[in-house]
Amino acid sequence: xxxxxxxxxxxxxxxxxxxxxxxxxxxxxxxxxxxxxxxxxxxxxxxxxxxxxxxxxxxxxxxxxxxxxxxxxxxxxxxxxxxxxxxxxxxxxxxxxxxxxxxxxxxxxxxxxxxxxxxxxxxxxxxxxxxxxxxxxxxxxxxxxxxxxxxxxxxxxxxxxxxxxxxxxxxxxxxxxxxxxxxxxxxxxxxxxxxxxxxxxxxxxxxxxxxxxxxxxxxxxxxxxxxxxxxxxxxxxxxxxxxxxxxxxxxxxxxxxxxxxxxxxxxxxxxxxxxxxxxxxxxxxxxxxxxxxxxxxxxxxxxxxxxxxxxxxxxxxxxxxxxxxxxxxxxxxxxxxxxxxxxxxxxxxxxxxxxxxxxxxxxxxxxxxxxxxxxxxxxxx
Length: 381
Hints:
This protein is mainly alpha-helical and 381 residues long. The chain folds into four domains: 3-55, no CATH class; 61-199, no CATH class; 206-269; 302-371, no CATH class. The protein has 19 helices and ten strands. It has helices spanning 3-13, 22-28, 38-44, 57-60, 63-80, 85-92, 102-111, 133-150, 157-163, 169-179, 206-219, 226-237, 241-244, 250-260, 266-269, 312-322, 325-335, 340-347, 351-371; strands at residues 47-48, 54-55, 82-84, 115-118, 124-127, 154-156, 183-188, 191-196, 302-303, 309-310. A three-stranded antiparallel sheet has the order 3-5-4, sandwiched between helices. It has a three-stranded antiparallel sheet with strand order 6-8-7. Helix 16 (312-322) crosses helix 19 and helix 17 packs across helix 19.
């Protein structure tokens, strides 16, 4: 039997997964005869879940539902560069059999040829390399910064979630913490918001009063703490300061105080406010290039196919498509005469999705030539 025939037989006889342990194999051969050398071929056409069992696509879902699942994943990759796998799983858990956790969903995406990674407590992400996951998240943080700037520095968290439905609340919080140190969580009128430091409503004399408080505590050899700062500010302003100025989050409160303090010992007064250590090559200790958090990263202006300037976000989309090995394979197959319809069908994706990815890849190299820059990877291959 061929590998295709064996997969079909396994889907009929073992729809709930296959074990390739020696004992299980002996029992399985009573129903589906195959040779030892065929096991590796079967494994290469299947994928393993956390349970240890192996599954084929047919065991997971019907062709149409699996195609919709893959299509949504690719559309989010094209538009955003990466997405929270938890969010995709929420949308399709009802049509996927045996996929019961986000980790299993990540395994399915890898089987479909996509790249996944886990970012600590922030969950699993699917992203299009290169660039890596961190670069993709940094690009998303730039989009959030642009939205905040357009909204005078403050947005409700619900607005951010609605603008980025491909990311979970945990993922967004991770982006804020790691890439947007100047953006804080605040509650305005009881509504959770994200607010840039300069947009947080504070008294005109806050810098002066805060500096006086901190210098006084230092002179008395008192430790700078949330409780002491809050108590002193309450006395200065004759109000419950943190409630009045929407600084209920402890981390936000301390960061705002640290950023507004103008004493001589600014680097040592707030020991809990960790800052990335910058190496001689411009990289932080974590490997990221340190940058002024109040200065968004800008992409150099590029001239598009029609002679007009293209936006940084459009250029990033072209670049993502150009550096994808999967899209490169699609482009080579199309150049050899294979129809895009056939490529899309075999990939479980829409024809329009595959067509758009190939178009963006080709446009990338033309734009590189027009602007006199060297493409990533050197040339269109």
